[in-house]
Specification:
With 180 residues, this protein is an all-alpha fold. Helix content is 74%, strand content 0%. It has one domain. It has six helices and no strands. Helix 1 (3-29) runs parallel beside helix 4 (86-110) and helix 5 runs antiparallel to helix 6 (148-175).
Length: 180
């Protein structure tokens, strides 16, 4: 593993722990708040959302392993001009806002306000756009002979982007009922 990949691994581990920690802390500090976090997502849609989350997590692990173990950072060019460090920006754009979603949303359910709603929307937009940037980065890799792991990573990133950009960034806020 090259130094660039180790740096990315550190970003992923620290960022991932922050995301998981925000969820664990959120559920421990406000037991029973799970229903409020669904906002206005109808009961019939929740199982599909949950399955989509699981598929997204699987896709996340597939594209992370591809980036960490199948790419040679020294020979990498994204869209013919960007180097491996673009992945740092993309993953920071996914992980930092993801760690902020739970605390902001829980605050919104308790003390609704326009500034909190803007903050929630901003973190969802950052994650959605960063996820789309990841799909683009993988699509434009200078890979001469894409293998099965590449195609699975690309498909996983595309599904992850669908979930974060459509379900989370567009649908969830449209359905969210701001508490009064």
């Amino acid at each position: 593993m090259a130094a660039e990949q180790i740096t990315l691994l550190v970003i992923i581990i620290i960022g991932g722990l922050a995301v998981i920690g925000s969820y664990v802390f959120g559920f421990i500090s406000q037991p029973g708040s799970e229903n409020a976090l669904w906002g206005g997502v109808p009961d019939w849609l929740r199982p599909f959302y949950t399955i989509s989350m699981l598929i997204s997590v699987l896709g996340y692990f597939v594209f992370v392993t591809f980036i960490l173990f199948q790419i040679n950072p020294a020979q990498l060019k994204i869209a013919g001009r960007f180097d491996f460090s673009l992945f740092y920006v993309i993953f920071l754009g996914i992980l930092i806002p993801s760690a902020l979603w739970m605390p902001l949303t829980q605050m919104m359910t308790q003390h609704p306000g326009k500034i909190l709603w803007i903050g929630i929307r901003l973190v969802l937009v950052l994650v959605g756009l960063s996820s789309c940037a990841l799909v683009w980065a993988l699509f434009t890799l200078g890979t001469r002979e894409p293998n099965l792991h590449y195609w699975l990573a690309f498909a996983g990133s595309a599904y992850f982007a669908f979930h974060t950009a459509f379900l989370d960034m567009i649908l969830w806020p449209a359905l969210f009922k701001v508490p009064t």
